[in-house]
Amino acid sequence: MAFTVQEIENIANATIDFHMDKGKIYSQSIQDKPLLQAFDKKAKTFPAGKEFLTVRVKGEYTTSIQGFSGDDPVGYKNPANIKQAVYQYKRIHAGIEVTFDELQRNGISISDTTTGRGESRHSDREVAALADLLDDKLEDMMEGRARGMNTMFWRNGSTDSELVAGIKSFILANPTSATIVGGIDQSTNTWWRNRASLGISTASPASSTIAQVLQKEFRQLVRYGSPKHMIFAGSDFLDALEKELRVNGTYTQDGWAKNGAIDLSVADTQFKGNTIFYDPTLDDEGEAKYMYALDMNAIYPMYMEDERNKRHSPARPHDRYVMYRAVTDVVGLVCKQRNTSGVYSIA
Asked: Residue 213: helix, strand or coil by DSSP?
């Protein structure tokens, strides 16, 4: 099969006669992924499962106290309040292919032509090779996987049933809009709802409206249990919050001048000791005006044992000199408590 125009252009960009920054490729579009980074640290494992990941939750109590004296009769209760939250795990794949022809043009040979293992770089290949084509393709696969996993964990799973339903499947902008969340009816179990306050006014920054709403909300977010919050916000939400800080004098907290210069910036914004991280994905997803306060003790991914970031080198077809590489994950996203997390937005 002939090369496509894109493949030919890629070879031309990676293999030319001379270039000042030979061997370097400067990516122009890699963004921070604070949610994915946090989930990578909080991830847990599970050994096996037919289809679902389940957690037991409880929001109601039956037992009560009763006063008595002498031989007054007393009552007994039989509590039955345990419910089960259910989440599907999925199998996720990211893979690349590269022809031996492409690699040879770039000064790379493959010794095991069945699996594509055992690559070797030719001596003096740097004379013609601007960049390592194989390394670039592998880097593309890993960054593509990271981008896909990050977006998947943010979304609600409605765009692709084969992907994991992310945080927006259980941290809802309107917590009363859905009935069943994680297999539990939240219309009758009001404790199974996240916090939300949308359309916060930005009309009067001097009134600190955003800060006041967050102050009120965080009392409720820490009302039950001991949450460990991480906060993620879009650029518009941070702009509005920083405007409140500027208007109310935080510029002069440490003085205008520092080391002989005037610094007009605002330091990284925090609330209740929690840094509010700018997450570019929210901008990409049309939620620049949103902020999510997530309880990382209650929300975390679960990977099947030995099935996280698993590398594959599939054998090539007998009639094609093509090398394949892939990474797979078997993963689900679990939420064991919703009322310690919230979503907020400005008008």
From this structure: helix
pTM: 0.86
Token digits of residue 164: 């994991």
Burial (0-12, 13-18, 19+ Cβ within 10 Å), 43: middle
Q: Which residues pair with residue 84 across a beta bridge?
A: 56
Q: What is the pLDDT of residue 120?
A: 60
Q: 231 with 284: CB under 8 angstroms?
A: no
What are the DSSP calls for 233-264, one per residue? E-HHHHHHHHHHHHHTTGGGSS-SEETTEE--
From the list 290, 151, 276, 154, the residue with the least C-alpha distance to 234 is 290
Tens digit of pLDDT for each residue in 111-170? 666 655 656 665 555 544 445 777 888 889 999 999 999 999 999 999 999 999 999 999
Buried b / exposed e along 5-40 (16+ C-beta atoms within 10 A): eeeeebbeebbeeeeeeeeeeeeeeeeebbbbebbe
